[in-house]
Amino acid sequence: MNDYLKTHLCDIGVTTIRDAFRIQDGLEHRIIFLTNGGRLAASLSDGDIRRFILKGGNIDGLASQAANMDPVVCRDRNEGLAILKERPNLKIIPVVSDGVIVDLVYEFGSAATDLNLPVVINAGGKGARLDPYTRILPKPLIPVGDRPIIELIMDKFRKYSCDDFSVIVNYKKELIKAYFKDINKDYRISWFDEERFLGTGGGLRMLKDRISQTFIFTNCDVLIDTDYGCLLDHHRNNKNLVTMVCAYMSIKVPYGTVKTDSDGLISEFKEKPEFSFLTNTGLYIVEPETIGYINENEEIDFPDVIERLRKKGLRVGIYPVSEREWLDMGQPEELERMRDILSENRGHMYYGQ
C-alpha cells in the first residue's frame, strides 16, 4: 500500500467526526475512506461532514454517522477515469479488489467554478488589534509574504472569475488607493469612502442601488480555503438572504474541569476536555436586498445586521468549514500563523494557484 493511499484510510470503529475533519484538511480532495478489518466500509467527504453538522450532529460522534455507506468504487484505473468523466461531481474513486482498496483514481488540479460574482471588501477599520503595525500601514496593506493581504484575498476570488471588487475604505484610505493605482491589474475596483467609521456593516449602505445580484462580502483580514462553488450552491439551495461562513474551532482546556451538585459534591470530572464551537470567519454570501435593512450613515457591525434579519424571520444560515480552512490576521500572533502557513503552502492552498 502506497503512502498516498494510507493517508486516506481510517478505521470506522474509532474515527470521530473531529478526527476526520482534521485529516481531510491535509488532503487535496478532502475525502477519506473508512475501513472495517481492512475492507472498505464507507466514504466521508467534507460535504458529508458539513451536512451532518448543519443537521445538528455532534462533532465528537463517530465518523460513520455522517459517512456514505455505499461509495462509488471501480475495478481498475481505466474504469475509474471513465466514471470521473461521466460524473464530474466525483473527485476521487477507490479501486477495490475483494473489498480492499488497492489504489485511488482522482482528478488533479481541477478548475474552479466560474462564479462571476461581485465582491465587496470591508477595508475601512483602524485595525486596532494589529497595533503597532497599523500605525504605519492600514491593515489591508500589511504584507503576508511578498504581497498585502487584500491582494491575496482578491487573487482567491479571481480564481473563481470574480473580477469586480467594491472596496469600502476609511482609515489611511489614500495609501490603499495609491497602492492599487501603481500596480498593473486586470480587474475592476470601485472605491466607497466612509466619512466616519460605520462598523463592519454600515458601509454597505453606500452600495444600495449599486449592486443588484448575489455578492460576496468579506472582511479584509481573512482567507478561506474552501470550494466557493459549493458555498454558493448551498446558499442558493437553502434560499438564504445571508450565509455566514463559520469555522469549527476546538479548544483543549489544559486543566481538569469539575462540576458539582447542590451539596458541593463532585458530579462530573473531565481531565483536559476539548470543546468545539462554530465561529464567524467574516466571510458571507449576501443577497442585495440585505442592504435595505441598513440605515443610511448607521454605525453597525454586519453580525448585528444578520441578527436584525433573523428577528424579522428572514432566512440567515451558515456554511461550516474546518479550522484549517480559515486564516485570520486580526491579531499579531494570527498574522504570524498566516504567514507561516502560506509560506508552507506557497503555490498551492491559499494562493489558489
* E-strand count: 18
Strand content: 25-35%
CATH first level of the largest domain: Alpha Beta
Helical percentage: 25-40%
Q: Order of strands across the widest beta sheet?
A: 10-9-6-11-16-13-17
Total helical segments: 11
Specify the overall morphology: globular
Order of helices and strands: HEHEEHHEEEHEEHEHEHEEHEEEEHEEH
Low-confidence stretches: 347-353
What summary fits the major beta sheet? 7 strands, mixed
Determine the N-to-C terminus distance.
Answer: 30 Å
Domains, number: 2
Radius of gyration: 23 Å
Structural class: alpha/beta
CATH superfamily of the largest domain: Spore Coat Polysaccharide Biosynthesis Protein SpsA, Chain A
CATH topology of the largest domain: Spore Coat Polysaccharide Biosynthesis Protein SpsA, Chain A
